[in-house]
Design brief:
Blueprint (H helix, E strand, L loop, with lengths): L1 H8 L3 H16 L6 H13 L5 H37 L1 H4 L1 H14 L2 H6 L3 H13 L4 H35 L3 H42 L1
Helix pairs in contact: 1-3, 2-3, 2-4, 3-4, 3-9, 4-8, 4-9, 6-8, 6-10, 9-10
């Protein structure tokens, strides 16, 4: 991530925003790319004044929402054969086991899997194509997609930006209160969102185990 941040710092701000939107957009279409690493690196750059945080967050949200929508359209058109091809092409990230887990999440939680999936690497990649392949109503998908993309993009960007600015201020003029408040707020919000996302995964894994057990009993 340090290498990515160093590389981005040598680019004009506009190019950084374009890269953020493009990488996150392509990742959201179903192609495994380091979207979160690019966003984190750019947010930390914003804390140093190289780029503007609101433009980083806007680019990330735009890429996430548009990329997921394109992935939805591709998944709806390609259906399950598309998911099978993606699994063969990216077996480590999109193999049968990963797709089965994501599909179980959609079956149990519906569009909430789209919202909280933005905070989970696997579902962040698969949400669009899988929702399209499963014929989730687009309006419901779009609402969850937009909400998740905005919360993830702006939340991540401003969390890291605030932490970076607080740390910089602390180093110059020890301000423990500001640093502690920023850290606690950031850790609390991140913990809650990731806890909800992991609960979706654990619930899905339990359902899979129960269904396998039921099949064995027969």
């Amino acid at each position: 991530m340090i290498d990515v941040q160093h590389w981005l710092s040598a680019l004009p701000p506009v190019v950084v925003y374009l890269i953020v939107g493009a990488v996150i957009g392509v990742e959201s279409m179903g192609v495994p790319l380091p979207g979160e690493i690019v966003l984190v690196s750019s947010a930390l750059l914003a804390a140093t004044g190289v780029v503007e945080p609101h433009w980083v967050a806007t680019a990330a949200a735009f890429g996430a929402i548009v990329g997921d929508s394109v992935g939805y359209a591709v998944g709806r058109r390609g259906g399950r054969p598309l998911l099978a091809r993606l699994g063969r092409r990216f077996p480590k990230h999109l193999g049968p086991a990963q797709i089965a887990r994501a599909e179980q999440s959609f079956a149990r939680h519906g569009v909430w899997a789209v919202f909280f999936g933005r905070f989970v690497a696997l579902l962040r990649i698969l949400a669009g194509p899988l929702a399209g392949a499963l014929h989730v109503p687009y309006r419901r998908f779009l609402v969850a997609n937009a909400a998740g993309g905005l919360v993830w993009a702006f939340g991540t960007t401003y969390l890291l930006y605030s932490l970076g600015r607080a740390a910089e201020h602390w180093l110059k003029d020890i301000s423990w209160a500001g640093l502690v408040l920023a850290v606690l707020a950031g850790l609390g919000s991140t913990w809650w969102l990731r806890r909800r996302a992991r609960r979706l995964e654990s619930t899905t894994a339990t359902d899979e185990a129960e269904s396998v057990g039921a099949g064995t009993d027969r």
